[in-house]
Amino acid sequence: MINTRRARTSAGEHASTGPPGAAEPAAEPAGGTERRSALATVLRHDLPASLVVVLIAIPLSLGIAAASGAPMISGLTAAVVGGIVAGSLSGVPFLVSGPAVGLTVILAGVISEYGWAATAFITIAAGAVQLVLGVTRMGRAALSLSPAVVHGMLAGMGAVIALSQIHVVFGGQPQSSALANLRDLPGQIVGHHDAAFGIGIVTFAVLLVWPRISRVSLVPAPLVAVAVATAVSIGFGLTVPRVSLPDNPLSGMGLPALPVGDLGGILVAIVTVAAVASVETLLSAVAVDKLHSGPRANLDKELAAQGAANMASGALGGLPIAGVIVRSSTNIAAGARTRASSVLHGVWIALFVLFLGSTLELIPMAALASVLVLTGIRLVSLAHMRELWRHREFPVYVVTFAGVVFLDLVKGVLLGIAVALLLALWRLTRATVEVVEESAEEWRVVVRGSLIFLGVANLINELRRVPEGKHVVLELHVDFMDHAGYEAIDDWRSGYERALGTVRIDEVHDTWYQRARLGKPEQRKSLPGQLPRWFAPWSYWQNMHSDGGEPDAGTIIPEPRPGADPMMLGMHEFQRSAAPLVRPFLSELAERGQKPSQFFISCADSRVVPNMITSSGPGDLFTTRNVGNLVPRNDVASIGSSVGASIEFAVEALEVPNIVVCGHSHCGAMKASLHGGVREGTHLASWLRHAEPSLARYRACEGELHDPDMDPVDRLSVLNVVQQLENLMTYPSVREAVDEGRLTLVGLYFDISDARVHVVDPETGRLSPVDPATVL
């Protein structure tokens, strides 16, 4: 409401700035300013950026068409359609689409098999597949492909492109396969050192040197390299193969025709073109998203846009298109602000083709081939190899790369996916087994991971290392155990005990073995971190019941440990498993001393664990616990109490910024205060007199309970927290620190049954949820 009034006032003041009595100027139509601003953005930023993108798009489009064996005009047609159609519909505003290097190998095979007109039809069909994928929101699902497979595929394509186009640089012709290109390359090197090779050397030199010249590096190196190579070929009058375009570009655009041949092969070609174009587009879209702070990518919309553009490109006789990172990053670096830059770059290419076709025909083929050779080499990224090696995904990369280079793209990708799945299966189902001799008579075998049939052989081999007649603790940290795993353990255990040894199964993570033994095996993996033993009571993992009775129906516990002291077992477990983790923190705290951020006053109830409910560790909480979480008022009767000493030490010596009083549900002290039953003349009765002000507060507001459904004892526990916060203010050091803003008092209430912490309002006693945004 305030903003609306200000807006109206501002508008009114602006409208009435003329002389009194003068006619007010006509109001500008809504959106007029926005349109002028948008136009200014296009003229100032997008127009120059589109011209820069054109400079790199034309040589790449021509080179890709040549490498694919397609008509030259098809590459430029695809660039025009990619800019105008895909740019207009794009879900990634800064993404520039056009002929893609990653499709070169596929198109060369498709054109060789079915001819150019049929390839145009396949492009239309592939676009329809992409359109369906986009409409059905499959864009994000395509990103589930392993990055190792994708990078291996791109690297394989780069190697194939480089191997084929290097023959053109030497003045020859590329062969039909990577193996054939490798086989004939030595002869090509020896036999061809003509003008085409010289043009290639010039192009390579410019491509490598130009980006290092800082002041001119904004002009794309491929454009400069092709321009210099063309100028050298004309200046020296060299006779070399050059770009060939139809005299009338519009009449030279080939129309699509139905493919003739094996239907299965045609369908594979359609799916392959659609898949590779989609993957390259989606990967480029994700990369482009990281280069700017504008609108985020809509991958499903982008996939649909690519489908529509490919259908249009195929219908006009153009190559398949994809969103490409080279042109897109150039677009952003050149200052593009909207999708208009991508659209305009398509318009400029169309004008170049229609009116400057003769200029394009001066470009030597060796120059375009050199650009593609270097582009292909750069697809084989050492940085990606190192990253995949660190993440142990390199085998997937190598298999995909080799498959693409020496077989074909589809087989290479399928092989890579198969290896990725096998590697994932091995990792997910791998169990590690560690055998430790703890003493002359006791051995410990620790099993971690998922124990299924694939790991049984390794488990049995390790178990057989344990000498006969010993006491063995088989410690299971498993999140899944199939029947083969259970049977292997059970059979080994039976055999070992028959040989006069003893075995104790200690299940730490979950009770897989025990459930299987009772004929109730679990079918799903355990959630990670389910009930760690430092959260669980001793009775859960030390094979005992605090009430001395039998376990409830369906409860599964490990086997008993006769005569074991629970605290000793707990300390042993701490030293064995937790101490190595916490030792670095304790060592540092031992050297620099304690500096806790909270003084935590809680009840001595064994069910209330301050470090657990606050997720804190060593050095975080300075704690005082007593029956009823009581703070005696600072008077003569409380002089010398341990609580008062703790308060003064926390505030004056430790300078804690917060004091927390935490009450809880089902409190025995509050129950005794409310209902009596404590024997007079005892220390407990004397101590509970400090709860009398809380009881008086409760009785004073008994008819005004905020939650009438709350148990009276629990309501007294809440009001007791409020009272103890008041009692804290009777200590001079506390009051002084609070008044100076150095100390904050906080009340908490822990509901044991619900395992939930509430914040207590110190004025009203109302409970509110814990808010992570609250700063104490």
UniProtKB/TrEMBL annotation:
Return the broad EC class: lyase
| GO cellular component term of the entry, any | membrane
Residues involved in Zn(2+) binding: C603, D605, H664, C667
Q: What is its main location?
A: membrane
The signal sequence is none
Sequence similarity? Belongs to the beta-class carbonic anhydrase family.
What is the designated name of this protein? carbonic anhydrase
